[in-house]
Amino acid sequence: MVAVSFVVLIGAAIVTCLFMAWVLGANSNSPPFAPAIGANAISTMRAAFVIGLLAAAGALMQGGSISETVGADLIDGVTITPLAATAGLLTAAGFMAIGIYTRYPIPAAFATTGAMIGVGLSLGGDPAMATYRRLGIFWLLVPIMSGGLAYTTATILRRDDVPETVGVPLLAGIVGAIVANVRLGVIPDPAAEQGTLAGFLSRQFGGGPVLAADIDLGTVLVTVGVGVLAFYWSRERVRVSVEDGIRSFLLVLGGIVAFSSGGSQVGLATGPLENLFRVELGLPGILLLAIGAIGILVGAWMGAPRLLQATSREYAQLGVRRSIAALVPGFIIAQLAIALGIPISLNNIILSGVIGGGLAGGSAGVSRRKIGITITFWLVTLSSSVVVSYGLYRLFASGIGG
């Protein structure tokens, strides 16, 4: 009887994980292509299809670090049980479903973090204050970094004394150099679970002398080489047609950020089940990430179009240049969060960039009322999800048994 109950709990937890991942695909993985849709560079339905594929790939290749943080580092003294994971995931998914219905994006990181803290406290755990400080500082800096970088970049791109064949290709070169150093699970590395393209190619040719902090000359040369190739590709397209070249770069950026969003978001669905899969069931982490990736894929295909329209057209009326300015900091911040294992909200990052890029052309295109309502939603989500998940787990435990 006990074994049957445990199997039922496992099944319920996995179904809830899939539901949470579905909501993430429909909600939090939508903003990366919102600027491209707002700039008429891609249709809404095509963007939803591409988002699903790229976000699922990112979930499989980059989702491990965020999953571990959510599953083990948000509460001290207890481990998350299948029942507690189910209560937490239901709470977070419920909040984000409200966001989809009301067309106000709910930050998945806030909803999930609050929900897992709530169930952890309900289990009798202690607050992980060091983790909360680290998350809080990073979250507070995100709007400043994203909005500030987007505003600065958009201002430079709009300057008459900066040729189109220089400004956009230079940004493409910077993005390319960063992509060369993004850690991916499919690239082997003798010293880490995930390797980088620059490090892998460098090792094939001996690496060369170490310059600083274990960075060898070969890695630097590959990084510069990829950046130069990206610069050349973008410059050639801009030379042929300025508008088509800029739109092409905007689409590539959207794809890169969508990939990053999968890596940064899937852990919000799979993290609560880390202890169940790795410890109690002894299964590999990639299997759990695959479950999350499937949910994200289906969610993006089914639910993303509604939110894509809201974020692309109601927050700011952006052109292609300001749209690029919104996505570049989004990509950088998302990859930084993945490297640090910090759960983040892509909604927060991209919308801050959209607003910053919109303000670079004047405030007329930015809905101040909707921005204010969105920020209020975010703050209410973080606090109320703790309370709701705490009570929901208590309800489940009293009816089923912890």
UniProtKB/TrEMBL annotation:
<feature type="transmembrane region" description="Helical">
    <location>
        <begin position="208"/>
        <end position="233"/>
    </location>
</feature>
<feature type="transmembrane region" description="Helical">
    <location>
        <begin position="283"/>
        <end position="304"/>
    </location>
</feature>
<feature type="transmembrane region" description="Helical">
    <location>
        <begin position="169"/>
        <end position="188"/>
    </location>
</feature>
<dbReference type="GO" id="GO:0005315">
    <property type="term" value="F:phosphate transmembrane transporter activity"/>
</dbReference>
<feature type="transmembrane region" description="Helical">
    <location>
        <begin position="108"/>
        <end position="125"/>
    </location>
</feature>
<feature type="transmembrane region" description="Helical">
    <location>
        <begin position="37"/>
        <end position="60"/>
    </location>
</feature>
<feature type="transmembrane region" description="Helical">
    <location>
        <begin position="245"/>
        <end position="263"/>
    </location>
</feature>
<feature type="transmembrane region" description="Helical">
    <location>
        <begin position="6"/>
        <end position="25"/>
    </location>
</feature>
<keyword id="KW-1133">Transmembrane helix</keyword>
<feature type="transmembrane region" description="Helical">
    <location>
        <begin position="349"/>
        <end position="366"/>
    </location>
</feature>
<comment type="function">
    <text>Potential transporter for phosphate.</text>
</comment>
<feature type="transmembrane region" description="Helical">
    <location>
        <begin position="80"/>
        <end position="101"/>
    </location>
</feature>
<feature type="transmembrane region" description="Helical">
    <location>
        <begin position="373"/>
        <end position="393"/>
    </location>
</feature>
<feature type="transmembrane region" description="Helical">
    <location>
        <begin position="137"/>
        <end position="157"/>
    </location>
</feature>
<keyword id="KW-0592">Phosphate transport</keyword>
<keyword id="KW-0472">Membrane</keyword>
<dbReference type="GO" id="GO:0016020">
    <property type="term" value="C:membrane"/>
</dbReference>
<comment type="similarity">
    <text>Belongs to the inorganic phosphate transporter (PiT) (TC 2.A.20) family.</text>
</comment>
<dbReference type="InterPro" id="IPR001204">
    <property type="entry name" value="Phos_transporter"/>
</dbReference>
<dbReference type="Pfam" id="PF01384">
    <property type="entry name" value="PHO4"/>
</dbReference>
<keyword id="KW-0813">Transport</keyword>
<protein>
    <recommendedName>
        <fullName>Phosphate transporter</fullName>
    </recommendedName>
</protein>
<feature type="transmembrane region" description="Helical">
    <location>
        <begin position="324"/>
        <end position="343"/>
    </location>
</feature>
<keyword id="KW-0812">Transmembrane</keyword>
<dbReference type="GO" id="GO:0035435">
    <property type="term" value="P:phosphate ion transmembrane transport"/>
</dbReference>
